[in-house]
Amino acid sequence: MRERLYNVLDGDDAPAAWFGRVMTVLIIASLLPLCFKESSPILETIEYACVLVFIVDYLARWATADLKLRKGALSFLIYPLTPMAIIDLLSILPVFSALNDALRTLRALRLFRTLRAFKLIRYSKSTSAIAAVFEKQREALLAVLCLAIGYILVSALVIFNVEPETFDTFFDAVYWAVVSLTTVGYGDLYPSSDIGRTIAMLSSLMGVAVVALPSGIITAGMLDELRGEGSSGD
Question: Which of 144, 181, 182, 221 is the most exposed place for a label (fewest CB within 10 A)?
Answer without folding.
Answer: 182
